[in-house]
Amino acid sequence: MGNTKVICTVAGPAEGRKAGGGGGSGGDANAMVQVEIGIAGFSGVDRKRRARGDKRISEMQLTIANAFSNTLITHLYPHSTILITLHVLSQDGSLLAACLNASTLALIDAGVPMSDYVAACTSGSTSSYNSNDEAADPLLDLNGTEEQELPFLTVGTLGAGEKVSVLVMESRVQAMRLEGMLAVGVDGCKQVKEILNDVVRRHGKRILLERVKI
């Protein structure tokens, strides 16, 4: 998404539970969805290498694991583990949204059954919290600089509908602005879903053409 680049791989469903590390979610009768995120030291401006136990990374792992535990049809694979591994190569805003969208595509490519797409994006406001501007307009798909200066949220929806599966906000904003930001974010998720769907269709078509040639 923009200059934020994420590589995602999926392993499983594999028999047995993976102990330790990463955010995980799932019951004994369902597959456990486990997420591991690695952020490259060169991905951001500060060139800071984050440890695996970093609080922000742990929160993102748990958010992604919970989102897909409710979306994947995990009861088909009891007592097993689905491992989602994300490698962040470049950061310029919308990191959680990019990880969610990359995970959706990777799970579809891996053939893991799911009820619908999880499509995510960020939305924000044109004015900071301190300005108290009631006429502030909502923004869509913020970059890294905008996220540092403006209040924003990350929203993820299921498919082309308006059912919210992920909603994360780490900045302060007036309640009167929140509804507009959320509405713009949900509309943005619908557009992202269409983009993801187009990517899946083109990839599937290419695979079918390669098999026909063989």
Describe this entry's structure for a reader.
The protein is of the alpha+beta class. It has four helices and eight strands. The chain has helices at 55-69, 95-110, 144-149, 175-213; strands at residues 5-15, 23-25, 32-39, 80-90, 118-125, 138-140, 152-158, 164-169. A four-stranded mixed β-sheet has the order 1-4-3-2, covered by helices on one side. Helix 2 packs parallel to helix 4. The model has no long low-confidence stretch (mean pLDDT 83).
Run of helices and strands: EEEHEHEEHEEH
Structural class of the helix and strand makeup? alpha+beta
Order of the strands making up the biggest sheet: 1-4-3-2
Query: How much beta, percentage-wise?
Result: 25-35%
Number of strands: 8
Q: Helix coverage percent of residues?
A: 25-40%
Helical run tally:
4
Spans with pLDDT under 50 lasting ≥5 residues? none
Most strands sheet: 4 strands, mixed
How many angstroms separate the termini? 35 Å
Morphology: globular
Overall pLDDT: 83
Give Rg in angstroms.
Answer: 18 Å
Brief characterization of the structure:
The chain has 214 residues and is of the alpha+beta class. 36% of the residues lie in helices and 27% in strands. It has helices at 55-69, 95-110, 144-149, 175-213; strands at 5-15, 23-25, 32-39, 80-90, 118-125, 138-140, 152-158, 164-169.
List the helices and strands and how they pair.
Layout lengths: L4 E11 L7 E3 L6 E8 L15 H15 L10 E11 L4 H16 L7 E8 L12 E3 L3 H6 L2 E7 L5 E6 L5 H39 L1
Parallel strand pairs: 3-4
Antiparallel strand pairs: 1-4, 2-3, 5-6, 5-7, 7-8
Helix pairs in contact: 2-4
